[in-house]
Amino acid sequence: MFVLYCAVCDRRTLLGVDEVDWVENLTRGVISVSGHCPLGHDAAILTGDAFTPHADPRYFGPAPRVWTKPVHRLRGWLRTRFEMSRDLPGPFYRF
Fold first, then answer.
1. Taxonomically, which superkingdom (predicted)?
2. Which domain holds residue 20?
3. Which of 36, 44, 46, 54 is 20 to 30 Å from the Cα of 6, by its Cα?
4. pTM to 2 decimal places
5. Which 3-state string (H, E, C) describes 31-56?
6. Is 41 within the bounds of a domain?
């Protein structure tokens, strides 16, 4: 199935495989699929490998975290200085 946009009707519809009129290989990686919208207007879809998003070869991942070690050290220091308690205060208990 293809999503077909008809400029005359200004709407998108699904084009099934049995509704395709013509398929043409324009250039390397570009395929043209021709069909009709439900109201009978001619429309074409451009698809193929040229329209598929590819990963950017210049992107090497996220930048290194500069503050990771200092933040972990600070968190450890705070844990030793302050006692962490996850108990609920008295007013929240049901007796």
1. Bacteria
2. 2-47
3. 54
4. 0.52
5. EEEEEECCCCCEEEEEECHHHCCCCC
6. yes
